[in-house]
Recover the amino acids of this structure.
């Protein structure tokens, strides 16, 4: 795959709940995306239950580390509904149908979309949100920050004065 498609797919898998399938994929993720080795090495050495508990602690208790991109721009307002529609329309425009297992702005879904299509528009549009999430994950001291570091390194910088 040209470009960063492999990295985006690997990052998407790293940012989903670490179930048994995740553990089985770790060697492939480590090999395919060396930029993520800080995280994949940690995940390989961490007991499954501990890794799962850490994921829940980092991503499920507070919006402070939200993996939903429109939350960063719209919060819990009416505008968020229109943002979610835009994500779904973008997927459809590329011949993909979103399954509704997660909201369409879920970062792993957006990364998988970018991996499949090469379209990084939504990642670029939400660059400021990704930078904030990366900064908060770093401050929290979680290895998930490494995943955001790698993704953000592939994107153009956020425009000056961009709002979170």
């Amino acid at each position: 795959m040209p470009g960063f498609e492999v990295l985006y797919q690997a990052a998407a898998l790293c940012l989903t709940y670490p179930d048994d399938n995740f553990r089985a994929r770790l060697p492939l993720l480590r090999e395919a995306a060396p930029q993520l080795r800080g995280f994949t090495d940690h995940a390989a050495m961490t007991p499954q239950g501990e890794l799962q508990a850490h994921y829940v602690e980092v991503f499920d208790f507070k919006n402070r580390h939200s993996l939903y991109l429109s939350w960063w721009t719209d919060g819990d307002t009416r505008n968020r509904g229109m943002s979610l529609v835009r994500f779904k329309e973008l997927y459809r425009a590329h011949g993909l149908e979103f399954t509704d297992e997660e909201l369409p702005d879920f970062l792993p879904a957006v990364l998988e979309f970018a991996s499949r299509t090469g379209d990084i528009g939504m990642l670029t549009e939400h660059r400021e949100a990704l930078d904030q999430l990366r900064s908060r994950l770093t401050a929290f001291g979680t290895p998930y920050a490494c995943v955001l570091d790698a993704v953000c390194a592939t994107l153009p910088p956020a425009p000056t004065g961009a709002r979170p």
